[in-house]
């Protein structure tokens, strides 16, 4: 980064730098994001950190991030963790460089897969998968066992994206251990994160071999899935679009190699972060029974006793949605995104950047900037997202789904799925945490509450 920032010396860095290694004091290989948050608190809204001989600039001040959201001067940068996923996801939507033609092609072909009509068609499948979760949780409650929240949310969201997008059933709820697809995925995400903590990839030779095997497993799974579909026919889901839809303007289609990249991208991006978002929301609901009671009252009022709420009834859960937003504010499960300068420019009128210079936006800190969120920004309070409060805040202060042309294509999908599931769970269970549980956050590029178990009880009848 240093070449691109002519006045880098004006950007603060940690005081004690170690020759050759850089700012590694107190750093923990397993929690790079939480280390960065710690530095952010010490050093302020823009700072730099050196790892070996590379220098990285981090930004989180609300005015700086608002400027970085200007699409005429800045764009997504594929760097660090995201770039490390290129061997798995290649020029798939998430990891494509802006200039790669397959980005626009796939974006235009797949965007209709996230329209209102498409979402309404996914809704019954989402409901069906949620039913498998509640069957499982009913059994656990009856047996007096606590449930493994992140584990079960991952089963739910994987089955949801694979059913709705690809007509595929991983059978997650019928297994005691995670599906091998999940283990391979966790392996590649963790490896991509670890690559940032060593000066040369060669230092991770053994891990690299395991990573090769994980990628080979992911490719095989996806190739089987595609082969099965070519032999049968789908119902217009994402996979059908990938295989059959020509670009409306150019008539071009995705190549078989690109389809493989997109399927992996959607299976991973389509469930890992939603699983974390649901898990954090359940953590906060268990911590705040009064908020859970208010949400439950809304579900009862809006849904009545319909066993199967319809598509339209999900968006009406305004308060449940605010709980999700507030969870994504404190723990945005894709916790950073990178922006690069499209031309020589001056960031927020203060920091000159040359064309191609880039910086990492730390979303969890942006979401805690007192300038935007007030002095009590650390407190969980869904009312921050009531419409009046939202209107009173400046633009670009809430960015869990990234920004601009490369923002999340699956945002509505995730929000619909998560709101539906929280509504169903609130109606059925009261959540009781282990008394000793303290929130710890695990990182594998994404964030997840570590080892969160909840006891399920019957909710009191409101009315
Ligand atoms: C991009 C977050 C759910 C598919 C992104 C980005 C963020 C994000 C921050 C931008 C990354 C960057 O700028 O480098 C989230 C969160 C989710 C979620 C927090 C859940 C709560 C989903 C779902 C899908 C999905 C459900 C698919 C069904 C994608 C794809 C991209 C993306 C394909 C790349 C878009 C592009 O560059 O054109 N997501 N996401 N995401 N997300 Fe999501």
Automatic annotation (TrEMBL):
SUPFAM superfamilies: Cytochrome P450. This is Cytochrome P450. Pfam families: p450. The keyword Acetylation does not apply. Keywords: Heme, Iron, Metal-binding, Monooxygenase, Oxidoreductase. InterPro entries: Cyt_P450, Cyt_P450_CS, Cyt_P450_E_grp-I, Cyt_P450_sf, Cytochrome_P450_Monoox. It comes from Streptomyces gilvifuscus. Belongs to the cytochrome P450 family.
